[in-house]
Amino acid sequence: MAPTTTAAPIMTSQQFLQSWQGHRALTRRTIEAFPEDKLFNYAVGGMRPFSALAMEFIGMAVPTLQGVITGKWEQFASAKATTRSELLRMWDETTREIDALFPKIPAARFQEVDTAFGQWKMPIYDLLLYVRDNEIHHRGQGYVYLRALGIEPPHFWER
């Protein structure tokens, strides 16, 4: 029997946003779990400290959404936090910007292919999955760091 396809999506754009923001909430709790000095200075095996990873997520999110909406791909933001409270403030600001920008993506845009930041040619839905998956992947590093420090990380299923 041949597979059947339908026009119904697996998830709506609003459901995707909720999923992404659920992961962001979990990453925020991961940031909070680190002792402040370890957040900025602890790394294993030549990997970056978790604060640098969190800044990567912050730096990617809004420029990606702006590029998706406008088709103009500006460089990633390069701000840097030096304290946990500053990092969390930036995190929360980015979260609000994601909530404001995401609904502005035209529905047809998700299926369009674009070259993001002059280097990643893919469908927009795939780019958004990449941004979310990158955060999930690197949050796993944070979990390894926390466990190596003797700290129980947040439950990954509590998004």
Q: Output the number of helix runs.
A: 5
- Rg estimate, integer Å: 17 Å
Q: Work out the count of structural domains.
A: 1
Instruction: Give the name of the CATH architecture.
Output: Up-down Bundle
Order of helices and strands: HHHHEEH
pLDDT under 50 segments (min length 5)?
none
Strand line-up across the major sheet? 1-2
Helical residue percent band: 55-70%
Structural class: mainly alpha
Q: Any idea what the shape is?
A: globular
Biggest beta sheet summary: 2 strands, antiparallel
CATH topology group: Four Helix Bundle (Hemerythrin (Met), subunit A)
Q: Percent of residues in beta strands?
A: 5-15%
| CATH class group | Mainly Alpha
Rounded to the nearest angstrom, the distance between the terminal CA atoms is 38 Å
The CATH H-level homologous superfamily: dinb family like domain
How many β-strand stretches? 2
What's the rounded overall pLDDT mean? 92
